[in-house]
Amino acid sequence: MRYAQLVIGPAGSGKSTYCSTMVKHATDTKRIIEVVNLDPAAEHFDYTPFVDIRELIHLDDAMEDEELQFGPNGGLVFCIETLLENCDWLEEQLGDVDDDYILFDCPGQIELYTHLPVMRRLVDMLQRWNFRVCAVFMIDSQFMVDGAKFLSGTMAALSVMVNLEIPHVNILTKMDLLSKTTRRQLDDYLDPDPHILLADMRNGQSRWHGKYAKLTEAIGEVIENFSLVRFYPLNIKDEDSIENILLTIDNIIQYGEDTDVKIRDFDEPDPDDDE
Ligand SMILES: Nc1nc2c(ncn2[C@@H]2O[C@H](COP(=O)(O)OP(=O)(O)OP(=O)(O)O)[C@@H](O)[C@H]2O)c(=O)[nH]1
Ligand SMILES: [Mg+2]
């Protein structure tokens, strides 16, 4: 079995920083985690990519081509489609190593995840190659500290979940940038009770809420009834926080399960054996 995290989320939410943080943490704990850069427009990141889409196609190739003449957004979709058409290239680059663990650092164009089929096709491909894939959706914590923004972030997370249909974890990034007071406020949002959050909106002077109160409440009920959305805070300056996130995702994709079983067999011998 092989293991993959599909690191996705809006522009600037912290995807590439997350990848380099995880690689560093893995090295410190004697684990190997590789990163594949899937952003054809990336200019800078702090990790050495194991595979880099820019070696196949760069965003400039799509934008500067006389015939294609794409803008930045269409160009990006074109690049990902080109990657899918060249799946042999990706397969060869990834090799075939059992038990490898790879983070896919994806572009920040939210349409790729909410309604276009390209990422779903990428997931299908990875699954065919024996990868167990978890979607890791980044949201900037600074945009999640009031009811309306929370609702909007939640809806984005939900549409990604529905579009990709794979195990999914939401990460609140940049926790180190929040003040202590704001961090405390954020607690209400981590395991959200929509009633409390919506009550906040109702009590505020939101014109939106006045007009669309029933809609907002219906959305709140969907979130609650399906227990779909939960957020894990990540502070990249705190090793425990990084380790917790990694453990959570490892459990979801059942990384290291075989090793656990072996250890358990050794630690807990069958009592009948003594007789
Ligand atoms: N303080 C702090 N800054 C962060 C954190 N994560 C990201 N940043 C900063 O936020 C900016 C964007 O981070 P990136 O990791 O490039 O975000 P991205 O999601 O890969 O962005 P795109 O690929 O352009 O969509 C950079 O200036 C980072 O240094 C964090 O946890 N803490
Ligand atoms: Mg990036």
UniProtKB/TrEMBL annotation:
Pfam families: ATP_bind_1. Keywords: GTP-binding, Hydrolase, Nucleotide-binding. It comes from the Eukaryota. GO terms for molecular function: GTP binding; GTPase activity. The keyword Transmembrane does not apply. InterPro entries: Gpn, Gpn3, P-loop_NTPase. Binds to RNA polymerase II (RNAPII). Belongs to the GPN-loop GTPase family. Small GTPase required for proper nuclear import of RNA polymerase II and III (RNAPII and RNAPIII). May act at an RNAP assembly step prior to nuclear import. This is GPN-loop GTPase 3. It comes from Diatraea saccharalis (sugarcane borer).
